[in-house]
Design a protein that fits this description.
By secondary structure, the protein is of the alpha+beta class. It has helices at 28-38, 40-48; strands spanning 17-19, 52-56, 63-67. It is elongated and about 45 Å long. The chain binds zinc ion (ZN).
Length: 68
């Protein structure tokens, strides 16, 4: 898994865009709880939990996760 390309790898469309799926990945609530319990280290751990971004192409409906 690498970083996202600037256009859709399937059809080459520049409408290819990042979509918000943060509910499953990085959890603000979890990070906040970590911050309360462990201070800055806990916050950092929460942020690094699962750092991925999902990109979606509206032209060919291809969707893929990349590193954030
Ligand atoms: Zn596409």
């Amino acid at each position: 898994m690498g970083y996202a390309p600037s256009k859709c790898p399937v059809c080459g469309s520049y409408k290819w865009m990042k979509v918000d799926k943060s509910k499953k990945g990085f959890s603000v609530g979890k990070a906040a709880a970590g911050g309360v319990l462990l201070g800055p280290v806990g916050l950092l751990g929460g942020a690094l939990g699962k750092k991925t971004v999902t990109y979606y192409c509206p032209d060919c409906h291809f969707e893929h996760e990349y590193k954030g």
